[in-house]
């Protein structure tokens, strides 16, 4: 099977599409033939009870295994040829629960769902008829097509709803900003402090809603392949310093001290607005999860790359969730404790992919988190202060505790 995402990929989360998984699962659960959905790395994301009965094991015990491990040694060559060809049919043996071999007719069909490559596998005892097998596979493929349509309709709804929300929200923010500017020119006693505070709170919440709406717009743009980049020469250090200054108020409210080290001359050919979005997402994320503790932002030049590191001393992230947090609508913590839709890091990585960059996290629970972004420089030989961006600062690391 092709390599790629793990069992938590899009293929394992189809239930989010307005309940579209229900008829698919109901059909597969009722099948007399064994059926499995297999991810791009060959892992069994789902299998029905019939497959468990066929192999003499509970279905729950089979899920999560590599399907290839279920194939009898004598049939591995036939199975590999089937997988390499993207699907087909073959008669081969599967390992049984008691160490025996179960002869089956295997039908494999490749399908794509939300950008992920999956395989639908139907295993039936050799006495089953080919027409019946094809009929069942046809039903499964039809349901997959309906699910894909439901996902497309969801994305279209997100796009339309986001655009409709953005127009009045922009007007509201402009009016609030105008009132605050007017109030700033009045004598202090002309506007009660409590009213000033409320206006400032309205402004903050309006900008927060605007950020959420922009995230939804980015989801629809990315899914439709419509995210455009305006490339120009940009100094990453300039962007980092501008973002830090802009969010100092947010950091102060959270009790976070911001420290930035960003020598000039870390220049590449990037989209300035999108780069600003990346830095803002990471710094805001650090403030949210590192509330009450310092946040450090570092920019430096490496061998042909620009490197941005944002480190907090907050709650940290379990290593098992390091990749999960970069997926859509995913977070490593409860939404009841921390707000947001789980889109910021996914959008960040998607922007970086289009800029040929990368993002990763270094963290463990209770010891803070350090997010590292690397972007290719326009010219690796562009000198910066001190040759490679000046004398390097002390290594930025998450807090390690006492």
Give descriptors for this structure.
single chain; 402 residues; alpha+beta; 41% helix; disordered N terminus; disordered C terminus
Return Rg in Å. 26 Å
Number of strands: 12
Low-confidence stretches: 2-22, 379-392, 394-402
Order of helices and strands: HEEHHHEEEHHEHHEEHEEHEE
Ends distance: 46 Å
Largest sheet: 5 strands, antiparallel
Average the pLDDT over all residues and give the rounded result.
77
In the sheet with the most strands, the strands line up as: 2-1-5-4-3
Structural class: alpha+beta
Helix content: 40-55%
Number of helices: 10
Strand content: 15-25%
Report the principal-axis shape: elongated
Task: Describe the protein in words.
It is a single chain. Helix content is 41%, strand content 21%. The radius of gyration is 26 Å and the shape is elongated. The protein has 402 residues and is of the alpha+beta class.
